[in-house]
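To the wet lab folks,

You asked to see what we're planning to order before we commit. Fair enough. Below is the target structure as tokens, and below that is the sequence we designed to fit it. If anything looks off to you, flag it before the synthesis order goes out.
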């Protein structure tokens, strides 16, 4: 049984039978800015009963040159406390896509391990015929939440560069193969295409079952995926992607298979791709 996942039927039963529990269900659905859509609109249309909504932008560093970067402890405390989450609150995270693992990583990086992901997210909740609510977000009573950043959870650009040159850590990249190979744009204006030296293409989509399940694959399947991509898991692993979001999925799956020695490169390709002092490798077209 996973320490970090909760199944739809278990959450539905808990919401029905244990309404007084210190629990917050958190919808963190999010769209890329260029989509022109706002996830809060979807939340108003339908969400899990008593869920609260958080926008990824609210808990990302607004002063950084790079997108979706980890915020300060003070900012995280303010937003999370405002959602009615305290130090002893059980947090259940879900979305309609691929962001839940990022929130899971953020909570744990700030020292809050009472957090789980709804396996299959909103899509499986709906497919299973579970109840939904339609309403505006309900203001929560602010709670005291203390964020204490845990050292060793975030990899720097220099660590990733060193790993690529010296091979002292494995780099796994969650982006699509086309972006990794440099055959497709990076997705960010002004950011070059390609990949880092030593990185292994490990697309995040591989770690989810197809519709209607959308659940994470089993531990055995996850281990097989890493091995089939050539990722040696005997030492440290650094995860990366376009902006640090889907890299969290790779980290989540590493935790699931019991590999604790990993860090997330928060700047990811959004930082690496626009720096002048970084090497960008492109594969030849077939």
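Sequence we intend to order:
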């Amino acid at each position: 049984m996973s320490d970090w996942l909760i199944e739809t039927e278990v959450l539905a039963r808990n919401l029905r039978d244990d309404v007084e529990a210190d629990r917050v269900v958190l919808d963190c659905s999010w769209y890329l800015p260029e989509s022109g859509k706002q996830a809060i609109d979807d939340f108003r249309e339908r969400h899990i009963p008593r869920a609260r909504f958080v926008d990824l932008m609210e808990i990302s560093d607004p002063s950084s040159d790079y997108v979706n970067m980890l915020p300060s402890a003070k900012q995280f405390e303010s937003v999370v406390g405002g959602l009615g989450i305290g130090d002893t609150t059980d947090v259940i995270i879900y979305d309609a896509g691929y962001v839940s693992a990022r929130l899971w990583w953020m909570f744990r990086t700030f020292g809050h391990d009472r957090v789980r992901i709804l396996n299959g997210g909103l899509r499986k909740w709906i497919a299973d015929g579970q109840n939904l609510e339609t309403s505006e977000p309900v203001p929560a009573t602010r709670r005291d939440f203390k964020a204490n950043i845990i050292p060793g959870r975030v990899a720097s650009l220099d660590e990733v560069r060193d790993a690529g040159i010296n091979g002292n850590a494995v780099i796994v990249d969650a982006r699509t193969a086309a972006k990794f190979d440099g055959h497709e744009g990076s997705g960010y204006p002004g950011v070059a295409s390609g990949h880092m030296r030593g990185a292994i293409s490990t697309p995040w989509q591989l770690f989810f079952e197809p519709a209607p399940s959308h659940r994470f694959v089993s531990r055995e399947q996850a281990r097989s995926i890493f091995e089939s991509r050539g990722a040696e898991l005997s030492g440290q692993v650094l995860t990366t992607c376009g902006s640090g979001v889907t890299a969290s999925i790779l980290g989540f799956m590493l935790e699931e298979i019991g590999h604790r020695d990993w860090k997330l490169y928060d700047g990811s390709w959004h930082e690496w791709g626009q720096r002048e002092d970084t090497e960008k490798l492109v594969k030849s077209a077939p």
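Structural context that might help your review: The beta strands are 5-6, 23-27, 52-53, 90-94, 115-118, 154-155, 170-173, 199-201, 237-240, 262-265. The longest strand covers residues 23-27.

Thanks,
Computational group
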